[in-house]
Amino acid sequence: MVFRKVDVGEIRDSFALLEPSLLLTGGFAIATGMFLRGMRWRLIAGCPYAEHSRFASATYLGVLSNLVFPARAGEVIRIMRIADVKLFPLPRAVASAMIDRSIDMLVLAASAVFVYLRVPAAEVLGTWLSVLVV
Prior knowledge:
Blueprint: H1 8-16, H2 20-45, H3 52-68, H4 73-83, H5 90-118, H6 122-133
Helix pairs in contact: 2-3, 2-5, 3-4, 4-5, 5-6
């Protein structure tokens, strides 16, 4: 039902405009970012490098779930995936995930302040920054 009004010619034209180098660069950046998020979470949790694959897979599953399910359900799924490991109790998984998300919020706020100070659209950014802080 979703595709009944889709113009196949427009889709073909859109794909023809894609630049493979930009697509590969973007894909590499996303994959690297998720790998580093898994590494950061593992470091916050205080686990050895041998456990990195578990944290990385939980991060990948969480990001995918956030794309599919509403209300950031992927965060719960990634915590449950890591808590599945017998040596990693649920309270520790929740605490480390909350610290991980808090760091993300701080980086986002710092980025917003940096953009606010550097971009001439201060009025719009000021309103956005105020809402972010609240």
